[in-house]
Design goal:
139 residues, 3-stranded antiparallel β-sheet, 3% helix, single chain, mainly beta, globular, 10 strands
């Protein structure tokens, strides 16, 4: 997998305990955040199929999220790119690593503009199925 933002640097890491962040329902940060200006291009981290657009995993992620199913080393993962200002793909689209899929934003429950990337082992949002996307990004 690759980074979803060119030259992106991780701000809030996966697993950070919930210290007053009322919207972290799992008790920890379920993804990684890439601080960036609104409108920054967002790219698919790996080949896959777009399975959801809009707010398929909840309004807290904003109105322009993208969910992609990936198969990595025989395992299925679903990545969600959240808080975007606009999408640039469609449900059912086959995407390649590095394809433009959205533009970053500050929609939903946020403290500022960034891209939030989550990775799950099931095709829906759940507080028990998240995995740290960082090792996958470095693969």
């Amino acid at each position: 997998m690759a980074l979803p933002i060119k030259n992106g640097k991780i701000g809030t890491k996966y697993g950070v305990p919930n210290h007053g962040a009322v919207h972290w329902q799992a008790g920890h940060h379920q993804g990684v955040d890439f601080p960036c200006p609104v409108g920054t291009p967002v790219y698919a981290v790996a080949d896959g199929v777009v399975t959801g657009l809009g707010h398929p995993w909840g309004q807290g992620f904003g109105n322009h999220s993208v969910v992609i199913k990936h198969v990595v080393n025989g395992k299925s993962y679903w990545t969600m790119y959240a808080h975007c200002s606009a999408t640039h793909t469609r449900v059912g689209a086959k995407v390649k690593q590095g394809d433009l899929i959205a533009y970053s934003g500050a929609e939903g429950h946020v403290t500022g503009p960034h891209l939030h990337l989550e990775c799950h082992t099931v095709p829906h949002w759940d507080t028990t199925t998240d995995v740290n996307p960082q090792p996958l990004l470095n693969a």
